[in-house]
């Protein structure tokens, strides 16, 4: 009887050992995500936001080039040499830097969000070979995110982009086109009059329009980048459909549907995150 009372008096004991739980957590596979989509669909923007939210490492061509140059690695020194000569960094070198980053201790611990690979360029490896390389990674992707957008909407959006030549800031058409800005301002005012309860929701749009008006004042300083012209955009989208689309569709068809996420590329990247 006394022994039963002693047992009842004992506090609840967690059956899981803290050290074992921590060890299991450290040995567990980190989240790995790949963002796919047509050229200019917003892959890098979305990938960057996901990396911040999930505390993963963003892996993207420009990021790894800058990182290697900054850290003066062997690859970084090769990049510097090429750039000093006015040459572009080869696809082979970029691919090797990306794959090395994927295998780094940092990524092994935190996981990754990969954007821009497989690459549209087949200078070093075909798209199929790049996909096979991804399938054979030690840290295979857990989730594939495909940003879907019609050719027309994508080409219109990209061809409407303008860049400020001093700051390098890129503005969308609704941020610099005076006609669209004025229409946004009028619509915002009309909505506020029709429904005062939505005033707070409309405030952000009004502020966006006001900020955009300051952009229209420096309209003469905005230029269209060569890669953003309608002709070049249509050409890149055409190459994507000819070279990459079929291989990606076959790969996504093999993926477990619960780990394949398709998003509407016409939405703002912030809106995509709440889907």
Set down the secondary structure blueprint.
Layout: H1 2-9, H2 18-27, E1 32-37, H3 43-54, E2 57-59, H4 61-70, H5 74-84, H6 91-102, H7 105-110, E3 112-115, H8 127-135, E4 143-148, H9 151-159, E5 162-164, E6 170-171, H10 173-176, H11 178-194, H12 199-216, E7 222-223, H13 230-254, E8 260-264, H14 269-272
Parallel strand pairs: 1-3, 1-4, 2-3, 4-8
Antiparallel strand pairs: 5-6, 5-7
Helix pairs in contact: 4-5, 4-6, 9-13, 11-12
Organism: Alectura lathami
GO molecular function: ATP binding; nucleobase-containing compound kinase activity
Protein name: KAD9 kinase
Number of strands: 8
CATH superfamily label of the domain at 29-150 and 236-273: P-loop containing nucleotide triphosphate hydrolases
Instruction: Give me the secondary-structure category.
Output: alpha/beta
Question: How much helicity do the residues have?
Answer: 55-70%
Q: What's the number of helices?
A: 14
> Mind telling me the CATH class of the domain at 29-150 and 236-273?
Alpha Beta
Overall spatial form:
globular
CATH fold annotation of the domain at 29-150 and 236-273: Rossmann fold
State the end-to-end CA separation: 59 Å
How would you characterize the largest beta sheet? 5 strands, parallel
Q: Report the average pLDDT across residues.
A: 83
**What is the radius of gyration?**
25 Å
Q: How are the strands of the largest sheet arranged?
A: 2-3-1-4-8
CATH architectural type of the domain at 29-150 and 236-273: 3-Layer(aba) Sandwich
The portion of residues forming beta strands comes to: 5-15%
Low-confidence stretches: none
List the helices and strands in order: HHEHEHHHHEHEHEEHHHEHEH
Protein name: KAD9 kinase
Organism: Alectura lathami
InterPro entries: Adenylat/UMP-CMP_kin (IPR000850), P-loop_NTPase (IPR027417)
GO molecular function: ATP binding; nucleobase-containing compound kinase activity
């Amino acid at each position: 009887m006394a022994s039963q009372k002693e047992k009842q008096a004992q506090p609840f004991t967690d059956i899981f050992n803290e050290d074992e739980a921590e060890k299991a957590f450290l040995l567990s596979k980190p989240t790995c995500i790949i963002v796919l989509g047509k050229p200019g669909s917003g892959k890098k923007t979305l990938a960057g936001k996901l990396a911040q939210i999930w505390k993963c490492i963003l892996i993207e061509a420009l990021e790894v080039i800058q990182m290697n140059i900054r850290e003066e690695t062997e690859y970084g020194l090769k990049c510097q040499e090429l750039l000093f000569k006015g040459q572009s960094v080869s696809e082979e070198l970029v691919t090797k830097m990306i794959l090395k980053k994927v295998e780094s201790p940092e990524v092994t611990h935190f996981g990754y969000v990969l954007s821009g690979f497989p690459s549209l360029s087949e200078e070093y490896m075909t798209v199929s070979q790049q996909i096979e390389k991804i399938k054979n990674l030690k840290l295979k992707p857990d989730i594939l995110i495909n940003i879907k957008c019609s050719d027309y909407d994508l080409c219109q959006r990209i061809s409407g982009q303008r860049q400020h030549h001093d700051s390098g800031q890129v503005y969308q058409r609704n941020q610099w086109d005076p006609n669209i800005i004025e229409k946004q301002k009028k619509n915002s005012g009309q909505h506020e009059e029709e429904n005062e309860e939505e005033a707070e929701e409309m405030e952000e749009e009004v502020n966006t329009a006001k900020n955009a008006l300051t952009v229209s004042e420096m309209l003469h300083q905005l230029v269209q980048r060569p890669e953003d012209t309608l002709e070049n955009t249509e050409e890149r989208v055409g190459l994507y459909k000819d070279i990459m689309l079929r291989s990606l569709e076959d790969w996504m068809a093999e993926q477990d549907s619960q780990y394949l996420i398709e998003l509407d590329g016409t939405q703002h990247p912030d809106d995509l995150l709440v889907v």
